[in-house]
Amino acid sequence: MLIITKSGGDIFCLDWCIMAKGNPKESRMRSSTSIIIVIGLCCFFYILGAWQRSGFGKGDSIAEKITKQTDCTVVPSLNFETHHSSDREVGLTVDESETKVKEIKPCPAKYTDYTPCHDQKRAMTFPREGMVYRERHCPPEEEKLHCLIPAPKGYATPFPWPKSRDYVHFANAPYKSLTVEKAIQNWVHYEGSVFRFPGGGTQFPQGADAYINQIASVIPIKNGTVRTVLDTGCGVASFGAYLLKKNVIAMSFAPRDNHEAQVQFALERGVPAIVAVFGTIKLPYPTRSFDMAHCSRCLIPWGANDGMYMMEVDRVLRPGGYWVLSGPPINWKNNYISWQRPKEDLQEEQRKIEKIAKRLCWEKKSEKGETAIWRKSINADACRGRDESQETMCEATDTTDVWYKKIDKCITPYPEVSSRSEVAGGQLKPFPERLHAIPPRIASGSVPGISVEDYLEDNKLWKKHVNAYKRINKLLDSGRYRNIMDMNAGLGSFAAAIDSPKLWVMNVMPNIAEKDTLGVIYERGLIGIYHDWCEAFSTYPRTYDLIHANGVFSLYQDKCSAEDILLEMDRILRPEGTVIFRDEVEVLIKVKKIISGMRWNTRISDHEDGPQVPEKILVVVKQYWTVGGNNSTSS
Prior knowledge:
This protein has about 625 residues and is of the alpha/beta class. About 30% of the residues lie in helices and about 15% in strands. It has a seven-stranded mixed beta sheet with strand order 6-5-4-7-8-10-9, with helices on both faces. Strands 13-12-11-14-15-17-16 form a seven-stranded mixed beta sheet. It has a three-stranded antiparallel beta sheet with strand order 1-3-2. Helix 1 crosses helix 2.
C-alpha cells in the first residue's frame, strides 16, 4: 500500500518519479512491475493534486512550476534557518509533512529533560558502591517511552559560537542551583533571561585562560602536539570551552547528579560533553586515544582500588601523553586546613597516587601550587625501573571491546617498537596536519581490511558527499550548526571534510560496526565514542544541531526498532535542527513512513551521481514546538 501525502509525500513520490523517468531500465531492475505502476500513478496524482491545491497558498507555487516543467524534476526546498533564536528572526516557512501514518504524540511535560539511561529514579535502585548507580542503566523494553520529548516553554535557539561559550538562554536549562552553590568559584551567574559563564572553575575561579597558560608552560598545547583531551568530572566544561581557543578539543564528562544540568550547560554552550562517571565500567573509548587527560578537583579516588582508575586513564592515554591533576591531594601541606580534611589522609592519598604513577611509568614533570603534571613513557623500553613480571599486565595492547565491560585491574602493555626513541603505536603529526595525514593504525595495517589506498579513497568520497550536502543546505558551514553528530562515523572522513572552527563533530562508532575504526578517528585529532543505537545516547535532550546518519538503519535492520532509534534522534536533536540520512532507498522509504508522524519536515534527494544510484539522501528539519503547544515553524 502506498500512502500519498500533501507535502513530504509529494517529495517522496517525486523522487520515485525522477528515478523511473531518468532510467526506466534501472527502475525495472530494482522494482517489481506493480511498483512501476504505482510510480506512474504517483506522478499523475502528484501533478493533479498540485493543480487542485492551486489557490490555497503553497500549492500555487507547485502548480506554477509544474506548468513550466512537467517532468517531475522540481523538488521543493526545506528552509534550514532558525526562527526561534533570541531575536526571533523571521524566515521563509518550511513545507509541512502531513501523513496518514501513525502519529507519535508528545510526552508529558515532566519528561522535558529526560535522559533514559541516566534516569534519577532508576539510578537510586542501584548500589552506590563504586558509583554503580551513576553508570548507564537503560530502561527495559516495557518502560521505554514511545513519544516525542517536548522542549520547555520559551525555548530559544542557542547563541552562535563563540557567544554561546559565555551565554545560555535560561529557558533552555532553567536550573539556578549552580549559580548559588558555585557562586564564589565563578562557574555560572544568572542575569535576567540568560546564564553567563565567566570561565571560572573550582580550581580556577579567576578564569580558565590563566589556568590553561600555566599548564601550557609544561605541556606543548600551543603547537598542535596536544589535540585531544579527556576532561574527567568536567563541571560546566569551561576548561574544554577555553581549550578550543588553542585548537585543542576536549571530550568532557560528568555524571547526572546533584549538580543539576552541568553537562546540559556544556552542550548548550557548544562544548563537547557526555553524561558519564568513573565507576566500574570501562570508558567508552579505544586504547591510546587522548593526548592529555585532566582532572580538576573531579573527586575521583585515584589511589583507591589498587589504582584501577589511573590504570584506565593509562589505557586511553597515548604513549607520551600527559595527565594533569589539580586539587586535592596535591600540595596538601598548605591546603589541608582549607580543604577541611586530615593531613594524614591527604598525605596517604598522594603517596598512593605517586606510587601508582611510577608503576605506570608516568614521569612527574611538574608540581606547582595545587597542580601536578605527569607524562606517560613513549614506549616500554623507555620505562625504566618497572619489572613487568611483578605487575599484572593486561593481555591486549589495543583494547576496543569496552562496551559495558568491567575496568581491569591491570596495566595495558605498549605496542612493540624497534628502538627506544620510537613512539609506541606511531608518531602523530601536529594538528591540523594530522587530520589528513595517514594515521599510524592505517599505515601499520592494524585495522584489518583497510589499506592506505582505502583510507585516501574514503577521504575523497566524503569530500564529494559533503559538497553535495552543501548544495542541498547552504547553511551547513555558516555557523548555523555547532554541535554535530555522526551516528556511524567510519574513518571520520565526514568530520574531516566538514571541519571548521565553527563546529565540532561527535563521531559515534556503533558497537556492532563491522570494522572498529574509532582509534583511527582519534589519531586524526577528532573525538568520538562507542555506542549501541538500540539504546539512548548519554546526553540530555536537545543537544545536537545536526545529526548525520549514514547507513545507520541498514546496519541496525533486525537488531532493534527503527522507531526507537528515530525517537532517540528526535530527543537529542534541537528544535529546528537538521538530520541528513544517507541509505538505500528501500530503507529510507521505511524510515520516512515513521518520521511522517514525528513533526519533522522532509525532503528526499538523489545521490550526487544521479537518480540511477539506489542510495538516496533524506534531509529533515525538526519543527519548533514546546510544552503544551502545537506551535511550529511550518504554521
